[in-house]
Specification:
single chain; alpha+beta; Helicase, Ruva Protein, domain 3; Tetrahydropterin Synthase, Chain A; GTP Cyclohydrolase I, Chain A, domain 1; 3 domains; four-stranded antiparallel β-sheet; 12 helices
């Protein structure tokens, strides 16, 4: 039986870009024949990608792209942060974010769009990356913002390179003011949204906060107030006060501005309108955090790699 060495696995990985486990299995199956192993990996590539699709992808990158009054953002997940440092993956995320700006931002439209220079859809390109890199990947979210007059600004926190990182934000500003001034203000507002100060904004104004969210918070406040045994009229005043405080925390316009906490975001916009000579309005904003809300489960890819090494 041919002994499969680490050097042989590395050589095959360098030639094909496939995962370590796939390379080792291919070499075992072909008794160490590199050429036959290359052919085998090419034949099994998409089958391997389908097999990997059952594994949880909760890491990855957020990519943003902006151009004047338009902006787009995507989240593409992988299984580990190792892939987030992979230049091939980074290029794909950045390219897909740019392509998303040519669509309406719906994830189905982005997935169906053609990946530049390859003649395949973005969904197919991601599937090919799965086979090449050896981890499951998913196009999880996408969005496009646009304004008739104004700018869409962006900010990426924990950036690994330009326009790619773990937290991405888009802010759409409507205004007839100078675009350069709007872009600077927009970036500062995007940084505020990324920081989640004093809390993650759930909407632009009080009216934008989901009614079910307000009802849930109100019920909690009422239960807490009743524990004190106070009269109903006092309880109602307490609850209304706490609801107002809640709105101040989660309605973007009511939040203290992270760059100047003496002012609310609403006041900052009003001051900017006077300075710029035209009113400034936040039309929309979006905030993506890599892996947010994904249940990773008890098993992870790192454990799989460790098991492979031991085996």
């Amino acid at each position: 039986m041919t002994t499969i060495t680490a050097a042989m696995v590395k050589e095959l990985r360098d030639r094909t870009g496939a995962g370590m486990g796939d390379c080792k299995s291919a070499l075992v199956e072909t008794s160490g024949d590199q050429e036959a192993a290359v052919d085998l990996l090419r034949k099994k590539g998409l089958a391997k990608a389908a097999k990997k699709s059952g594994r949880t992808a909760a890491d990855g990158l957020v990519g943003v792209a902006v151009s004047g009054p338009n902006g787009s953002m995507v989240e593409i997940n992988a299984e580990t942060d190792f892939v987030a440092r992979n230049e091939t993956f980074q290029t794909a995320v950045k390219t897909i974010a740019l392509v998303a700006m040519t669509t309406n931002g719906e994830i189905a439209k982005v997935a169906q769009a053609i990946y530049p220079g390859e003649g395949v859809s973005i969904a197919e390109h991601i599937s090919n990356l799965v086979a090449k890199i050896g981890e499951n990947m998913t196009l999880r979210r996408s969005v496009k913002l646009e304004v008739e007059k104004g700018v869409v600004a962006s900010y990426v926190h924990n950036a690994v390179t330009t326009d790619l990182g773990r937290i991405g934000v888009l802010v759409a500003l409507e205004s007839a003011a100078d675009r350069a001034k709007l872009a600077d203000l927009g970036k500062k507002l995007a940084m505020h949204v990324a920081a989640g100060f004093p809390a993650v904004a759930l909407g632009i104004s009080e009216a934008d906060i989901p009614s079910e969210t307000v009802a849930r918070e109100r019920a909690i406040f009422e239960a807490q107030a009743k524990e004190g045994g106070k009269p109903d009229n006092v309880i109602q005043k307490m609850v209304e006060g706490r609801v107002r405080k809640f709105f101040e925390e989660v309605a973007l316009l009511k939040q203290p501005f992270v760059h100047d906490q003496e002012k609310t975001v609403e006041q900052v916009l009003a001051d900017a309108g006077k300075e710029f000579g035209a009113p400034v309005k936040i039309k929309a904003f979006e905030r993506f955090v890599v892996g947010e809300g994904i249940d990773k489960g008890p098993d992870d890819f790192a454990s799989e790699v460790a098991a492979l090494v031991k085996g």
